[in-house]
Design a protein that fits this description.
Largest sheet: 7 strands, parallel
Number of domains: 1
Helix content: 40-55%
Number of helices: 12
CATH topology: TIM Barrel
Shape: globular
Distance between the termini: 41 Å
CATH class: Alpha Beta
Bound molecules: zinc ion
Length: 262
């Protein structure tokens, strides 16, 4: 069975339901951070339809998670934002304002306020989470060096408000759950904690995540799943895989082309 399909995600949700873990949104966790729980976080980076499919699936299981919406044309769709909220999920703000302001912090904060206000027209928003761009010269993290997100009426930011030395952070970035040390370095402040060192290397497939959940040996886990990577249709799935390997495919293509020309 292929991994990173909606059916596989459903297995994960079912597995969580069979344990003592309480699935919850980021806001739920920040409001009451104790107990055995799994924080479910989603970044709505693109392919809003796939986000809606995942949100509907979770709602069928009575699961509430957080969807962080970017403020970009293809993602900022009022009907989608409203539907996610109506399904019972938390809507959050996935900001990339430092990129938009090209590193100008004052301008970035101004954009932050405006975009957050925009999003609040369609849902209650009390947490925000940065959209990491590893290629940018500046980080959205810098925004909060001498400014407080509480000033914007926000309760938390998952990268700042959750202690990942206690909560195992798992992300599907790169369509694998493994090698997280390389990928997370850009986003987590202290990625090399004991917890991630212990589990980061062994968890690769979603089945690994499912087994970890079923073992119930950890107290708290945060799962970041990008719904745009999870789809059932073969065409979309292959396209995702191709995009993931685009660099290699591109290189191979160039070599092939050169061979033909020779
Ligand atoms: Zn993102």
């Amino acid at each position: 069975m292929r991994d990173f399909t909606l059916a596989k995600y459903e297995e994960l949700i079912e597995a969580i339901g069979s344990t003592k873990y309480k699935p919850m949104s980021v806001l739920d966790y920040l409001s009451s951070p104790g107990g055995k729980c799994i924080i479910l976080r989603h970044d709505v980076d693109r392919a809003v339809e796939r986000n809606l499919a995942m949100a509907r699936l979770e709602a069928e299981y009575g699961v509430r998670s957080t969807y962080y919406f970017r403020h970009v044309k293809d993602v900022f769709i009022p009907e989608a934002i409203e539907e996610v909220a109506e399904l019972g999920h938390e809507v959050g703000f996935h900001y990339e304002v430092m990129d938009k302001a090209k590193g100008d912090k004052d301008k970035a904060l101004e954009i932050f306020g405006t975009e957050l206000e925009d999003l609040r027209k369609y849902a209650e928003v009390t947490t925000a989470c940065m959209h990491g761009n590893p290629f940018a010269r500046w980080s959205n993290r810098d925004l909060w060096k001498d400014c407080d997100f509480a000033d914007f009426g926000l309760m938390g930011e998952p990268y700042f408000s959750i202690d990942y030395s206690k909560v195992l952070y798992l992300t599907d970035t790169g369509r694998t759950w493994a090698d997280r040390n390389i990928r997370v370095k850009d986003v987590l402040e202290n990625p090399d904690n004991e917890l991630s060192a212990k589990y980061g290397k062994t968890i690769r497939s979603t089945d690994d995540v499912i087994n970890l959940v079923k073992r119930e040996e950890l107290e708290q886990i945060c799962i970041l799943a990008h719904p745009n990577r999870w789809c059932d249709g073969m065409l979309g799935w292959s396209k995702e895989l191709i995009m993931q390997n685009l660099k290699n495919v591109g290189k191979a293509g160039i070599i092939q082309y050169r061979k033909l020309k020779e």
